[in-house]
Amino acid sequence: MEEFLPSSKAVVTASANKSALAHVSVGELGQNQVAIKTICSGVSTGTDKWVISGRFEWGNFGFPLVPGYQRTGVVEAIGSKVTNVKVGQEVFATASINYLDATAGWGAHTSYGICEDFEVFDATGIPPARAAFGVVAQVGFNAASRIIANPGDRVLVIGDGVIGASGALSAKARGFVPLLLGRHDARLEKIHSLGIKTANSNTVTQKELSEFAPIAVIDTVQSPEAFELYYRALPATWAAESFGNARTGIGQIIFSGHTPDGANTWADMAHLQKQELTVHFVSGWIANRLIQTLDLMRADAMSLEKIATAYTADEASIEKLFSNIAAGKNPDIAAYINWA
Domains in the chain, ordered, with CATH? Predict the structure, then answer.
């Protein structure tokens, strides 16, 4: 074992929805571990919300905890068996190991942290604030990668959050033509600035969606109301005239992201069957897709920092950010904490 820093500044959730800037103790560095000084940590206003509330149904963490699962930084030290990164390298990292006095609720909102080597990826040449969204961007990339279609085909994206924006940018990078629907004009304007066509779901008409004629939908909202908005625009096998769309058996829906609180009905199964729609469910990450996502960021095809809000790692900023997240009132498309 190698010794590392005795403490780190971090976001600490002491009990449900009670988060503040505090110090945590960092353990010793193991042989297969990497110590990283954080530059930026990307906030997931969805998943972070459920983790700090103690309602993340895929496996809750005990309090106190350090939330967050994506950050960028510089390698400070490596264990004796680490070969994939070197000291001084700019990297992206996912989950940290537990702190001595707090659970790692994946533990990325921290100024220093230790990760297993397989959680660390090269981020050389990527702006740190951009790479800090590696995992959520990969969820959008994953959704777009499932689409079976030809360049020039149209893809409808539901949701004006960071996963929706990532899915639209990934679809565009594959040569598709995306249209993103959301409910917040300010968010839609920012996403449009990245070269993505947008529309407000409160005012768009079924006729407009049918005329857009998407071959696939990336649904990041995942609710019956969202499904009702778009399913008629997809290729239909039966009742083609009533749908205004005679293409058959090629429509696709990709449900993308984590849906909390036991929600288990997002679509009408009868309509899925009648239209012979193919459905995918995506949520997590794997190394290969994460590397491809970072490559898109490196190529300036996924510049999420341009639509994100920066927060400094001070008490007032952290209290404001995480109070808004806990209340479900965060106005940002995306947010990151600047630890530098």
Answer: 7-124+303-338 (3.90.180.10), 135-282 (3.40.50.720)
pTM for the whole structure: 0.91
Cα gap 172→145, rounded to integer Å: 11
The answer on pLDDT for 56 being more than 80 is: no
Spatial CB neighbours of 242, under 8 Å, sequence gap ≥ 6: none
For 272-302, what is each residue's pLDDT tens digit?
888 888 999 988 889 999 999 999 999 999 9
> Is residue 39 within 8 Å of residue 310, measured between CB atoms?
no
Question: Tokens at residue 319, please?
Answer: 């209290």
Taking CA 217 as the corner, what is the angle to CA 215 and CA 219, rounded to the nearest 5 degrees?
Answer: 175
SS3 147: coil
Cα–Cα distance, 202 to 178 (Å, whole number): 18
**CA atoms of 117 and 212, how far apart (whole Å):** 45
Nearest of 14, 115, 122, 136 to residue 64 by alpha carbon:
14
